[in-house]
Structure formats: structure tokens, C-alpha cells
Amino acid sequence: MGEIEESYAEIKAQIDERRGLIPQRDAAAADVSGWSVGMHVHHCGLAMSAITGTLIACGNNVPARSLGPGAALILRMGKLPRGVAQAPDVAMPSRDASARVLQETLDKSEARLDRLPPVDDRCWFRHFALGVLAKRDAVRFMSVHNAHHLKIVADILDGARAYPANNARSGLWFR
Q1: Which domains can be identified in the chain, with CATH numbers?
Q2: pTM above the 0.85 mark?
Q3: 41, 55, 60, 107: which sits with the fewest CB atoms below 10 Å from its CB?
Q4: What is the phi/psi pair of residue 143, to 5°?
Q5: Distance between CA 99 and CA 101 in Å, rounded?
Q6: Does the pLDDT value for residue 130 go beyond 50?
Q7: CB 29 within 8 A of CB 21
Q8: DSSP assignment, residue 137?
């Protein structure tokens, strides 16, 4: 199995894990995140739909591309720092998304993911902070991004008793 196929398999498993979190969508722990479990689920579904939708709609215009050092490091390490970036409007979750909305969002992102394999490898997605990501890098980013939010959700569900309120400054950036 190649690198991109491994990322597809990881993302599929992450989507299934998110579906299992829907019943706990109202769980929250302010000392971990300002978002509830449902908001993290919704955000990831929206982000995956935006990324996959952009890749699917990609034309033949391939911009000059080179990963910046930050993007390359994040993709290589497979981790995102906590508390550093703010979600763009297209991936901003609703505070009150119903179980049905969360399920529909995950279904849509999975359906789009299933349409990615035949998409040209030169297609790209422009991330607001990381810059232009070719298909392979965009798929890897989705896997890293999902794992990042699943770790936050795990801390929310654990109650995060041992973590200080501002975990971005507490050394938990790459937990």
C-alpha cells in the first residue's frame, strides 16, 4: 500500500471514529477546548468536504508549488500545534449541529473522499496557513488534521483534569 492509500485508509477510519462520537456531541471541557465534541466533529467534516471538493473541481491550472518549511514539518511529523490557528469560515462549526447534520456532513465528506483517487495528482488545494498543497499533501493533511482533532476530543472526554486552561502555552502543542 502506497503513502496516499495509507492516508485514505486512515481518513476512512477517522470518519468512522467520528460517527461513533456523535452521541457524545454535547460533551465539553472548557479547560481543553472552547468547542464541544460535536463542534470538532462538524469542523472536520466541513474541512474534509472543502478540501476534497476543491481537489475534485481542480482544473488544469497547477500553480508553482513548494511546501514551506512549516507545512513540510507538519506533514512529516504528522502533528499540528494546538491553539495556534483559527478555523476559516468555510470550516467553522455550528455550536448546535444536530446528530443528523453531523452525520450528513460526515457522509458528504466520505463521498467526496471516495471520488478522489482518479483526480489528477497535480490538483491542489490552497490552505489558508500552509499554502498550496498538491493532492498527495492535501490528503496527508486531512489525516493529520483529523488525528489532531480526535486527540482534542479524547482529552475533552477524559475531562482534561490534568491540563491547564491554556494548553497552547503549556507544552501540549504536539500532544
Answers
A1: 3-158 (1.20.120)
A2: yes
A3: 60
A4: -65, -45
A5: 6
A6: yes
A7: no
A8: H
